[in-house]
Design goal:
The chain has helices at 6-18, 29-38, 55-65, 79-87, 100-115, 149-160, 168-176, 185-198; strands at residues 44-47, 70-74, 92-95, 124-126, 129-132, 137-140, 143-145, 166-167, 204-207, 211-214. With 218 residues, it is α+β, with helices and mostly antiparallel strands. α1 (6-18) packs across α5.
Length: 218
Amino acid sequence: MVDDERAIRRLLRLYLTDAGFTVAEAPDGEAAIDQVRRGGIDLVLLDLMLPGMDGFEVCRRLEEISSVPVIMITARGDEAHRVTGLELGADDYVVKPFSPAEVVARVRAVMRRVSAPPDPHRVLHAGPAEIEPTGRRVTVGAREVDLTRLEFDLLAELAAHPRVVYTRERLLEKVWGYQSGVGGKTVDVHVANLRRKLDEDIGIVAVRGVGYKLEPVA
């Protein structure tokens, strides 16, 4: 838990400890980086507004030394900060003022996501569409849907991480690769193609000013 406000650290420590987590505290970025370097940290809950090194720089430094997941804490309505944090590799964000119970739920969700080993034989779902990663097949009922390689990879990436918000840049990195040289509008075009080809509500939701996520469809 990285926050320069002791009262917030104590409050979240109380809730997280009660939920079964062991919590280490850091009042600034340097202390947080030192703790991650020493090991034993499974997740970092990171406030953006820190003295000295801000949360963005802390996130950059953590990406260089560790694969530990990061949940950022941002000010209400600060869309630019949320986008930047996700682009830097943050796994989720919490908006102030927050409910401590929501923070605990988000920590649990991220921990489940990063600790679960991938199952290559697991069938993924996007609304009524079934996605078979090993066979690279997508079906809606008895109908097999013909997707391009990139359309399939985009759909599978979103379906494998339901409710996770992806920036367009992160999707480009995951699906197209670092050196793709294409722009964010390419993602929009491929999402539109998926919606058209599947001809169903597949649950891909645009997150305004950020990117996309896949919401499970009941």
